[in-house]
């Protein structure tokens, strides 16, 4: 396939930095959305030999309707990764719902005006494919492409701490995904639009430079090892490198528009996680001793059909993750 121009939002983040590399390996050029030109410097440092293949567009506020008005000129493929973080907000609508809804609709509306666009991939979450109480129903079977609408209540009393943050984040993901589906039905765009739904993403990071910068699911996985309490979330994980590769493969895959693509790794449990680390890293002070428990599962058949990823064994993901944290400690 001839060289194409691929636009990536959230490119300086955990998944985005990996995706740049996989898109470049596939022979394409990249244009990244950054909030300032200074932010682009970190990407150039990651891929110094591909300087002539990577450009940027400054997008100060990605939720504005005209945010991508000029950024998508001559672009062929779009990956929209930018969005709210679980631990980076407090207000439900301002910090979680509005970014999910406005960010996706803004890039879709801009793509509609660019004749060069062939495909747009909206990266959501496994949480948008399950009801608000789904995480509490472990084990829970997550299914995609059912057409189900999950109700949300903006006025409920959200719990304090991480549980409340997670529910607010899920609210934004559910509402954002429904807005995206409504937009496709209404606009029937000429380009293909798919949504991607990773489970909890962890593994080696290209952006973490010190132990203090540990964040997201990686933070949860590391801190859980230091605790003697129960795990705070079901074990439904996927290697960040697999997520990146799966996204890059969407470029050439003949995926029908409107398809939901769930992405998750091999089935595993918290007990297996603890046992593997204790046996391989005997010098680590591991307090975590979970009991065997049912594992939340998510159907991945449609993703395997179109993207054909050889999913990384969970032991390899854990090793790459732990090795990095030891090196940075």
From TrEMBL:
It comes from the Eukaryota. The keyword Oxidoreductase applies. InterPro entries: Epimerase_deHydtase, NAD(P)-bd_dom_sf, NAD(P)_dehydrat-like. This is NAD-dependent epimerase/dehydratase domain-containing protein. One of its GO terms (molecular function) is oxidoreductase activity, acting on the CH-OH group of donors, NAD or NADP as acceptor. Keywords: Oxidoreductase. Belongs to the NAD(P)-dependent epimerase/dehydratase family. Dihydroflavonol-4-reductase subfamily. The keyword Oxidoreductase applies. Pfam families: Epimerase. Residues 6-209 form the NAD-dependent epimerase/dehydratase domain.
């Amino acid at each position: 396939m001839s060289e194409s121009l691929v636009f990536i939002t959230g490119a300086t983040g955990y998944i985005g930095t990996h995706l740049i590399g996989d898109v470049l390996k596939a022979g394409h050029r990249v244009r990244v959305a950054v909030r300032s030109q200074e932010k682009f410097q970190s990407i150039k440092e990651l891929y110094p030999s591909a300087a002539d293949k990577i450009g940027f567009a400054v997008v100060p506020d990605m939720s504005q309707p005209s945010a991508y008005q000029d950024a998508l000129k001559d672009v062929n493929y779009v990956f929209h990764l930018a969005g709210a973080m679980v631990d980076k907000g407090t207000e439900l609508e301002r910090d979680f719902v509005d970014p999910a809804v406005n960010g996706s609709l803004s890039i879709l509306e801009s793509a509609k005006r660019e004749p060069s666009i062939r495909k747009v991939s909206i990266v959501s979450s496994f949480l948008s494919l399950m009801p608000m109480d789904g995480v509490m129903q472990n084990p829970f079977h997550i299914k995609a492409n059912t057409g189900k609408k999950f109700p949300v209540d903006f006025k409920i009393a959200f719990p304090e701490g991480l549980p409340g943050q997670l529910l607010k984040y899920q609210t934004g993901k559910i509402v954002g995904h429904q807005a995206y589906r409504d937009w496709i039905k209404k606009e029937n765009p000429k380009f293909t639009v798919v949504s991607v739904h990773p489970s909890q993403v962890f593994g080696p990071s290209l952006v973490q430079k010190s132990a203090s910068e540990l964040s997201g699911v990686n933070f949860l996985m590391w801190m859980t090892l230091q605790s003697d309490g129960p795990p705070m979330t079901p074990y439904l994980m996927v290697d960040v490198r697999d997520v990146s590769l799966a996204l890059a493969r969407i470029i050439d895959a003949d995926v029908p528009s409107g398809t939901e693509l769930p992405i998750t790794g091999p089935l595993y449990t918290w007990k297996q996680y603890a046992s593997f680390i204790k046996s391989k890293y005997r010098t680590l002070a591991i307090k975590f001793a979970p009991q065997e428990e049912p594992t939340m599962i998510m159907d991945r058949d449609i993703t395997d059909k179109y993207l054909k990823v050889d999913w990384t064994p969970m032991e390899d993901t854990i090793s790459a993750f732990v090795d990095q944290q030891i090196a940075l400690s």
